[in-house]
Design brief:
Blueprint (H helix, E strand, L loop, with lengths): L1 H18 L3 H7 L6 H4 L2 H15 L11 H12 L3 H32 L1 H15 L3 H12 L3 H25 L3 H9 L4 H38 L5 H10 L3 H29 L13
């Protein structure tokens, strides 16, 4: 009897080893990684703690760099005095300017990328205009369009246009020639070639251009609102400078950083879903 029990136990041990460790054991053995989202909070948390300690200890003049808790109190105070209106005004301007600029950039970038004659006509001019600083446009837009919403939206559209244009045109021009030759072997026409080969192959550059364009749209929005605005985060920056309130300036900067991060994260989600088919280094987990 004992020999039968020993044989059964040995068989059980053999089966278990053959089947490998249990799921619970595998989970326990799996290396645990620190979440990347929490890693991203490490640097700003360290800076905030250092600023708080430095301001409270008197090492940093509070009129130049207020403590983060004081900035939070300023945000709460601004919240009771119409802060959402400022955020909404800036967000709407960025959305309108980015929409107009990105739409034009996609159309013209595609034309330049697909047609050599369009490239010869348009690209030299766009490359020259791309080098003009944002503030150089402001006087001209104020002369042409006044001080209402139109010059602000146009300035933001200019800022969003060039990164998107570069992404679309360079992405299409950089498509692997062998892909196009294979498509021609299958007798794909112009529309089918663009839809099934050129656009998917250029999509990484296009989405990168859209992300960069959105970031520049926020930057140009500040330039537009610093010049002539009665509402918006750029107006808060200007108001804080004129009243020597560094806490208001820093509160506006914090809000710009948060809004920029949110919009960029949304674009990153769209980029990941749009490029889910791509077998890249990042999709494999990276380093």
């Amino acid at each position: 009897m004992s020999s039968e029990l020993a044989a059964a136990r040995a068989q059980t041990d053999f089966d278990g080893s053959a089947a490998g460790p249990s799921p619970r054991t595998r989970r326990a053995r799996r290396p645990r990684h620190f979440p990347h989202g929490l890693l991203g909070l490490l640097l700003p948390s360290t800076v905030l703690i250092g600023a708080e300690v430095g301001a409270r200890a008197g090492w940093i003049p509070s009129n130049l760099l207020p403590a983060p808790t004081q900035i939070l109190e300023t945000l709460a105070d601004l919240g009771a005095r119409g802060l959402l209106g400022h955020i909404g005004a800036s967000t709407l301007r960025v959305a309108a300017g980015f929409g107009v600029g990105a739409a034009l950039a996609v159309l013209l970038g595609a034309a330049v990328g697909l047609n050599r004659r369009a490239e010869a006509i348009l690209d030299p001019t766009f490359q020259a205009l791309r080098a003009i600083p944002s503030l150089a446009w402001v006087p001209l837009l104020l002369l042409w369009l006044g001080i209402d919403e139109a010059p602000k939206v146009v300035l933001i559209a200019i800022g969003a246009f060039f990164p998107v244009y570069m992404g679309v045109s360079s992405g299409i021009r950089g498509v692997d020639r062998k892909l196009i030759e294979v498509a021609r072997l299958y007798r794909l026409g112009g529309v089918a070639l663009t839809r099934r080969v050129l656009l998917p192959a250029a999509m990484p550059s296009i989405l990168t251009g859209l992300r960069n364009g959105l970031s520049l749209a926020w930057m140009f929005m500040v330039a537009a609102e610093l010049i002539a605005a009665s509402k918006g985060l750029g107006y808060l920056l200007s108001d804080g400078r004129e009243t020597s309130r560094a806490d208001i300036v820093l509160a506006a900067i914090v809000l710009l950083a948060i809004l920029g991060k949110i919009s960029d994260s949304l674009m990153a989600v769209i980029e990941r879903r749009g490029l889910a088919w791509r077998d890249s280094f990042s999709s494999a987990g990276g380093a």
